[in-house]
Amino acid sequence: MKFEAKHQGKWVAAKDDKIIANAPSLNKLMQKIQKKENPDNLKFSLVPKGFIAG
Q1: Could you tell me if 44 and 13 are in contact, meaning their C-beta atoms sit under 8 angstroms apart?
Q2: What whole-number percentage of the chain has pLDDT above 70?
Q3: Kind plus residue range of the DSSP H or E element containing 35
Q4: How many C-beta neighbours within 10 Å does residue 11 have?
Q5: Within a 10 A sphere around the Cβ of 13, how many other Cβ atoms?
Q6: Given this model, what pLDDT does residue 4 score?
Q7: pLDDT: is 39 or 12 the higher one?
Q8: If pLDDT is split at 50, 70 and 90, which confidence band does 26 have?
């Protein structure tokens, strides 16, 4: 999966290889996701700072 520069240092939630939400902490991301989606169907990743999408 390719991440954009705006996702550096943030947690992202993806479904079908598309990012549907991001947040600076996992707790905030889970709060956003629980309102919209079932967390069991999602993949979570922490994008490191300095990461460059290619």
Answers
A1: yes
A2: 93
A3: helix 26-36
A4: 19
A5: 23
A6: 84
A7: 12
A8: very high
Q: Measured over all CA atoms, what is the biggest interatomic distance in the chain, rounded to whole angstroms?
A: 32
Sequence length of the chain is: 54
Q: Is the pLDDT at 17 greater than 60, yes or no? A: yes
**pTM over the 0.90 mark:** no
- CA-closest candidate to residue 43, choices 4, 10, 11: 11
The span from the CA of 4 to the CA of 15, in Å, is 16
Contacts of 48 (CB under 8 A, 6+ apart): 8, 9
Position 39: which residue type? P
Question: How far apart (Å, rounded) are the C-alpha atoms in residues 54 and 46?
Answer: 17
Looking up tokens 């993806």 gives 14
